Every structure is written in C-alpha cells, then in structure tokens.
Amino acid sequence: MIPAQFEYVAPRTLEDALRLVERHGDEAKILAGGHSLLPLMKLRLAQPRYVIDIGRLRNMNYIREENGQIAIGALTTHAEIESSALLRAKCPLLSETAASIGDVQVRNRGTLGGSLAHADPAADYPAAVLALNAEIIAASTGGTRTIPVSEYFLDMLTTALRPGEILSQVRVAPQPPHTGAAYEKLHQPASGFAIVGVAAKLTLGNGGTIEDVAIGVTGLGPKAFRAETAENTLRGKKASEKLFAEAAQHAAQGIDPLSDLHASADYRRNMAIVYARRALNRAFARAQGKP
Ligand SMILES: Cc1cc2nc3c(=O)[nH]c(=O)nc-3n(C[C@H](O)[C@H](O)[C@H](O)COP(=O)(O)OP(=O)(O)OC[C@H]3O[C@@H](n4cnc5c(N)ncnc54)[C@H](O)[C@@H]3O)c2cc1C
Q1: Atom 12 in ligand 1: residue holding the nearest Cα
Q2: Which pLDDT belongs to residue 1?
Q3: Looking at residues 231-248, what average pLDDT do you find?
Q4: Which residue puts its alpha carbon closest to atom 47 of ligand 1?
Q5: Among 36, 159, 169, which residue has the most ligand 1 atoms within 8 Å of its CB, making it the best to mutate?
Q6: What percentage of the chain's residues is helix, strand, coil (to nearest 5)?
Q7: pLDDT tens digits, residue range 192-221?
Q8: Which of 77, 201, 217, 225 measures 20 to 30 Å from 23, CA to CA?
C-alpha cells in the first residue's frame, strides 16, 4: 500500500505545468485532488516517475459567467460545484450531481477536471456533462482546443485528451426557460460510485410538448453515453408518466452492460430503466416549476 518512488513537482502556473507534462511525457502523471490517482499508485497500478501536482496552480479554481456560458476551472472541487450559487441558479444539474459524489472528504478534495480526465465508468459527472452538452477545454504548450463532450469519452478510463494536454476548463450553457433537469443514481453503498446514474434534462414547449431532451447514463457500460433511442421516443411528444416509462425501456439499448461484484449485467440494465424513469419524471416536475 506504499506507492513506488517518484519525483514530486509542484508548478505554480499552467504554462510551467504544461512544459513539464510535455517534457516528461508517459513518465509523468498529473495530480489534482489525488482521489483517483493516489489509490492507483498505492496499489502500484500506476507507477509514474514524476508526479506533477497541479493543485497549486493559480487561477484554475473558479465558476463564472463568460460570453453567455458558465465556465468552470478544472481545479474546482465537487464541494464548490455543489454549493455554487451561480450553478444552483443557472445549471442546477451539475450541483445536484456533485452533491451525490462519495462523501464530504472526497467532495472537498476531488476536482471536476480530475474526474473527467480519469473517466471512471462509474463516475457521476460524465452523465451530467453529456446531458448538458458541455465543452471540454484542453490546454497544451501549443494553445487550447475545445472538445465537444459528445467526442470526449472514448472508452473505459480513456478520453480524447492527447498526451501533453491538461484539461483546463469545462463550459456549460445556462439552463433555458421551461427546462427541468435531474440526476438519479443507484450508488454503491461503500464508495458512493454509481452502479447506474442517469441525468435527464427536459425542455417543454407549448401545451406540455417535449421540445428538447437529453439523457446521459453512467455506470452501465465502459463509458458514459447518451440514451439516444430513449430521447427520440420523447422528442416532440406530450410529456406524461406513461411516455417516460416507455422511453426509459430504451435507456440501455445498444449497450453491453458491465458485470462485477457489485451488480450483474442484467441488474444494471434493469436499474438503468428504473433510474431513467425516475430522472425523467423529476426533470418534468421541475420543468413545470415543482421542486
Ligand atoms: C472513497 C472514494 C469515493 C468516491 N466516490 C465517488 C463517487 O461516488 N462518484 C464519483 O464520480 N467519483 C467518486 N470518487 C472519485 C473522486 O470523485 C475523484 O476525486 C475523481 O475521480 C478524480 O478527481 P481528482 O481531482 O481527485 O483527480 P486525481 O486523482 O488527482 O487524478 C485522476 C486522474 O486524472 C488525471 N488528471 C487530473 N486532473 C487532470 C487535468 N486537469 N487534466 C488532465 N489530467 C488530469 C490524473 O493524472 C489522474 O490520471 C471517489 C473517490 C474515493 C477515493
């Protein structure tokens, strides 16, 4: 349970961190909150020669409005996202998702950037950022690029971040009017990780018609995904509990669910249906102004 030896570096600026990441390549690991990396190092599943601690970088911990979007710095902790007045007012799905992560200790140390860079198949944010159509900003010594979230999660623990890149920011749009969103999660009791987690966002048009819908699912497969067949079942129809139940049946469509000591593939598939229905019903209630 003791990590292999490594050299520790704590740059103070993003530019210095990027130069170090570029210089040390595969031999280096970035350290943010450490709540995924350190367990891996203790088990010696990761044995980096250099640990580049970005936790002391200035100006990477913020939540602010910028050009009509909400910009969140990669080092913003789960607890800060949970309690942010701006996010609670304008993008409550992200705060609700953050509040469901692990325990207080994990939420105080873990960061949004670390969670999204790690891309654990049971992590919570991936469902929410997919439902929110977020943008991921990746920085390198050559500048920054924007990755649409639909192109970001590639496989288990694998993202579209390239070697030499640091995830620097996440951008989400403020929630439009007549919209409700909800995150519903079956959590693994010891860690809090999602056995299945579903984030649903609904926008209502005239007469209760579903104008727009997005459903992000985590925990079920090797990477989080949008439940597109379920979304297509809903779009343009009049919202009702019956319709949500019908659409939720498609929540696991096309996915080969994971099976492990916490849940079998069949159980996960069934729970995806149950939690999709719950998330849709709650998002609908909120879109109507109910709690
Ligand atoms: C007991 C326990 C319970 C937990 N429960 C949950 C839960 O219920 N739900 C959930 O979603 N998560 C859970 N987690 C995980 C937690 O949310 C982690 O904090 C998160 O996954 C990683 O964030 P971090 O800042 O700690 O990253 P770190 O552990 O520091 O880094 C994780 C990985 O990402 C890389 N990395 C970090 N930041 C960046 C960056 N900005 N750019 C590029 N690469 C980067 C690192 O090199 C490393 O490979 C739990 C963890 C623990 C220990």
Answers
A1: 123
A2: 77
A3: 98
A4: 30
A5: 36
A6: 35, 25, 35
A7: 999 999 999 999 998 899 999 999 999 999
A8: 77
The residue contributing the CA closest to ligand 1 atom 28 is 34
Which residue type, as a one-letter code, is found at position 187? H
| Alpha-carbon distance values, 92 to 45, 70, 124, 168, 260 (Å) | 36, 12, 14, 22, 32
d(CA 87, CA 90): 5
What's the CA angle centered on 148, arms 213 and 200, to 5 degrees? Answer: 25
Short-list 230, 227, 224, 226, CA closest to 244: 230
Query: Model pTM?
Result: 0.97
* Cα of 124 from ligand 1 centre, angstroms: 11
Output the average pLDDT for the chain.
96
255 alpha carbon – ligand 1 mean position (Å): 25
pLDDT tens-digit map of 87-107: 999 999 999 999 999 999 999
Decide if pLDDT at 58 tops 90.
Answer: no
Bridge partner residues of 138 (DSSP):
145, 167
Kindly give the distance from the C-alpha atom of residue 105 to the centroid of ligand 1, in angstroms, as a whole number.
Answer: 12
Cα–Cα distance, 65 to 31 (Å, whole number): 27
Report pLDDT for 290: 87
Q: Report which protein residue has its CA nearest ligand 1's atom 27.
A: 114
C-alpha 49/C-alpha 164 separation (Å) is: 16
